[in-house]
Design goal:
7-stranded mixed β-sheet; 11 helices; Helicase, Ruva Protein, domain 3; Rossmann fold; alpha/beta; 282 residues; binds S-adenosylmethionine
Length: 282
């Protein structure tokens, strides 16, 4: 009986199913199984894990999760051609792989699991940030996420105050999650090669946000502060607060600093001041 180790190379599977990459679906496939195993290793012990994989394509990451011993993998794929290719993998998975033809942006993810899942994917770059923010802000129970982003976006998500990459995305994601940069993947690892490198991040939702704040107010102050990041905060916050200097001082922040110098604790303090001034409903 066929098993995972006797599967044909991924490239052959893609060829046999006519899986020429479609740009409209953000398709850049990974065929190097050593690299795929390395990516999956950042998820740690998977023996009790339910993995929800977004966009499995011809099944490279899916194979790696199954090889690593994942208890269950549910793969959500929008492209019907890939669903057919994944069927062969399902047949050698001992019932561990379920394939669902679906658009992740419309899927009811909480219906798919009973225990907090690992959410994984080499996502199309153009929807990766949207998918991440939906997952992070949904508050659904998630063990961790192992996701691939365009390198520049990955570095923004993981950036620390004071760096050029530090911005609104860093604050909002790190406020709710612990972020670990795992590895960068060069363009030539993909078929076809994209113009830019990718980064794999492991993102683990916190049991509660890092500091108290209401998300709409945190969104409002970070939007204004980073929207004009070259200005000092007393200037960039001019349309958000009638008296930005008093608001910044109430939050314990020097008004002559720029947004990139303010840590998450500072932005949360400013969000609370914003809430006190404008009220809860925004
Ligand atoms: N995981 C595979 C790999 O590493 O080779 C494929 C990665 S490719 C960058 C992205 C995959 O996501 C493609 O298979 C594409 O069809 C799928 N996809 C694109 N948009 C999607 C969506 N909205 N919902 C689910 N899958 C999607």
């Amino acid at each position: 009986m066929a098993d995972l180790d006797s599967l044909p190379p991924l490239r052959d599977v893609a060829d046999r199913h006519g899986l020429r990459a479609r740009r409209s679906l953000g398709q850049n496939f990974l065929f190097d199984e050593n690299l795929l195993d390395r990516i999956v290793s950042f998820s740690g012990d998977l023996s009790n894990a339910h993995v929800i994989e977004i966009g499995p394509g011809p099944g490279g990451l899916t194979r790696a999760f199954l090889r690593a011993g994942a208890q269950q993998v549910t793969a959500l794929e929008k492209d019907r051609r890939c669903v057919a290719a994944l069927q062969e993998l399902s047949e050698v998975s001992n019932g561990r792989l379920e394939i669902i033809e679906a658009d992740v942006l419309e899927a009811d993810l909480p219906r798919l699991f009973t225990q907090p899942p690992v959410i994984a994917g080499n996502l199309p770059f153009n929807i990766a940030t949207e998918v991440l923010m939906q997952l992070v802000e949904s508050g659904m129970p998630i063990a961790h996420m192992l996701l691939m982003f365009q390198k520049e976006v990955g570095h923004r998500i993981a950036a620390q105050p004071g760096s050029k990459s530090y911005g609104r995305l860093s604050v909002l994601v790190q406020w709710l999650c612990a972020v670990e940069a795992c590895l960068d993947v060069p363009p030539e690892a993909f078929v076809p090669a994209p113009k830019v490198s990718a980064s794999v991040l492991r993102i683990t939702p916190r049991s509660c946000p890092l500091y108290p704040a209401q998300i709409n107010h945190l969104r409002a102050v970070t939007k204004a502060a980073f929207g004009q990041r070259r200005k000092t905060l007393r200037n960039s916050l001019g349309t958000t607060f009638a008296d930005p200097v008093s608001a910044l001082e109430a939050a314990g922040i020097r008004p002559d600093l720029r947004a990139e110098k303010i840590n998450i604790k500072g932005f949360c303090a400013l969000a609370r001041v914003h809430q006190d001034i404008v009220g809860t409903d925004i």
